[in-house]
Amino acid sequence: MNKYESIIIINPNLDEAGVKALEEKFTGLINENGKVENVTDMGKRKLAYEIKKNKEAYYIQFDFEAKPESITELERVYRITDDILKFIVIRKED
After folding, report:
1. Tens of pLDDT along the chain (94 residues)?
2. Which of 15, 16, 30, 61 has its CA at 20 to 30 Å from residue 44's CA atom?
3. 10 Å Cβ neighbour count for 45?
4. What is the pTM assigned to this prediction?
């Protein structure tokens, strides 16, 4: 299993309960094929540039271990989730 870091940028119009639900959804998805080590809720921040007419958004960072095959599924779910504006998954060096 490799170590990864993933940051998702969430629609700012979502309420706090919705953000928490997304955090739990992705924590559960990662835990199916790996292990979440840390979840950091960075809160609402100003974006460097507008994304879909939004000037700010919620940021959440996941630090986790997973098999390389499970990253494809995680990214697929990120893409089809309407409230996620942007995401990135980075493999950490050991």
Report:
1. 899 999 999 999 988 898 999 999 999 999 988 899 999 999 899 999 999 899 999 999 999 999 988 899 999 999 999 999 999 999 998 6
2. 30
3. 12
4. 0.88
- Asked if 11 contacts 86 with a C-beta cutoff of 8 angstroms, the reply is no
User: What residue type is 93 in one-letter code?
Assistant: E
CB 19 within 8 A of CB 26: no
What sign results for the dihedral spanned by CA atoms 1, 61, 85, 91? negative
How far is it, in rounded angstroms, from Cα 94 to Cα 12? 34
CA dihedral sign, ordered 83, 49, 86, 41:
negative
